Amino acid sequence: MKFLHTVLIALISFSGFAQKKTQLTLAQADSLFLSKNLLLLAGQYNLQAKEALIIQARAYPNPIFVADVNAYDPENNKTFHVGQTGQKFFQLEQLILLGGKRKAEIDIAKQNTKLAALELEDLLRSLRYQLHAGFYIVNQQRITLEKFDRQLDVLDTLISAYERQVARGNLPLKDVIRLKAVYFKINNDKSELANNYFAQQQNIQLMLQTDNYIEPVVNDSDFDNLIAPIVYNTLLDSALQNRPDLKLANEEEALALLNIKLQKKLAVPDMALNSSYDQRSGAFVNQVNVGVSIPLPLWNRNRGNIKAAQHEMQSANVYQKQKTTEVQTEVRAAWQDLTLSLSEYQKIKTFYSSDFDTVFNGVNQNFQRGNISILEFVDFFESYNESLSEYERVKNYLATSAMQINYVTASKIY
Q1: What CA–CA distance (Å, rounded) separates 22 from 30?
Q2: What CA–CA distance (Å, rounded) separates 98 from 276?
Q3: Would you say residue 340 has pLDDT above 90?
Q4: DSSP string over 66-97
Q5: CA nearest 413: which of 238, 172, 216, 284?
């Protein structure tokens, strides 16, 4: 049995625990996340791209220069006859945007930049929640795995001792089988938890762009700092004021309004001014002309695009109302979840103490001395194991509920 346990520990160490670890507090993990996360970096580049489009929207249309020169003069049998007796034509044309189109396009470019900034802010909010929740989950799993290891060590020692007594005929074989059954149950729980632990570690490593396993530095006092109750209306006001996705819905509605204005302005035709020089093909020699051209809005008055923009405005308005309702629902659910987790934590905090470990050591010693039966020992061992797991679960439940409050309010409440 000792050999089996040693092999299992070696396998787990080889697969992950032996990997280099980095101890981080939550604040340190946050700092590393802000400087290393590639999704945030991509979002920043996207924002810079939108800012560049403002520069482009401010640019005025380039003038158009036209040159027309003689290629072949059949009367004089000359090619490129462009001298004083030849022919050449030059024209310069400038498009003049009318109706405020350029200003409208600049406003839309600025609005798209604002949307990109809010998208980046919402991405940061989402990723930070994943990091914080994962941070506490990994901490819970690490502590539980370490306690599983200690329990397996105790069982391994007992099983080895019992096997020797069985071989001497002092104890029945069924007692060893019963202890091994408990061992396998705990070891199976440990294996399942280890798989989840490794998966969660991979997520955190990806967010922090590190090859090292993260070992969270969390004190019990950190959980005590999360027990301050918060009034629901305070949370809701904070969410309605700070949620970037709600702001995004509001700004998308504003963008739709700007698009309606632009489409109406596009119905106004633009004017082109031109000036030209014609050497010989006009009514006069060396003729200089000026002109203007403007399309007549007879068949296309942009009515389809205007109507489409109006429907997009209505859609954005409905989406904004839906998002507001969604925010209210999420805040209420998170507040209720936090209330429940606070109740569980405060209750289990009064039950759990270091006496658990003291009693466990005492029961283990008394069992080895034969003062309690194997059934009593196994019942206590399983209850003790469940209590440890439940205590860590409740602590993690409180932490993730608090992080959820931060997420749904887009505020640092905890």
Answers
A1: 14
A2: 23
A3: yes
A4: EEEE-SEETTTTEES--STTS-EEEEEEEEE-
A5: 238
Token representation of residue 85: 């007796």
Spatial CA neighbour of 135 closest among 52, 234, 237, 32: 32
Q: What is the pLDDT of residues 365-406, one digit of tens each?
A: 887 777 888 888 888 888 888 888 888 899 999 999 999 999
CA distance 112 to 9: 55
What burial class does residue 45 get, using C-beta atoms within 10 Å of its C-beta: 0-12 exposed, 13-18 middle, 19+ buried? exposed
Domain segments of the chain: what residues?
2-59+100-267+302-409, 61-96+270-300
Residue 7: per-residue pLDDT: 42
Cβ distance 397 to 341 under 8 Å? yes
Q: Has residue 174 got a pLDDT over 80?
A: yes
For 137-153, what is the mean pLDDT? 92
CA 99 to chain centre: 42
pLDDT tops 80 at residue 329: yes
- pLDDT of res. 13: 45
Residue 93: CB partners within 8 Å, gap ≥ 6? 63, 64, 65, 66, 272, 273, 274
Two structure tokens written together for 412: 């640092």
Q: Please state, in angstroms and rounded to a whole number, the distance separating the CA atoms of residues 39 and 343.
A: 37
Mean per-residue pLDDT, 3-19? 46
Cα–Cα–Cα angle for 235, 237, 238, rounded to 5 degrees: 65
Using CA atoms, how far apart are residues 381 and 366, in angstroms rounded to an integer? 13
Torsion angle in degrees (nearest 10) through CA of 326, 328, 330, 334: 180
Pick the CATH number of 2-59+100-267+302-409 from 3.20.70.20, 1.10.10.650, 2.40.170.20, 1.20.1600.10: 1.20.1600.10
Question: How buried is 306 (Cβ within 10 angstroms: 0-12 exposed, 13-18 middle, 19+ buried)?
Answer: middle
**Tokens matching residue 312:** 């997009």
CB atoms within 10 A of CB 134: 22
CB 48 within 8 A of CB 221: no
Distance CA(251)–CA(168), nearest Å, equals 81
Do 70 and 90 contact (CB within 8 A), yes or no? Answer: no
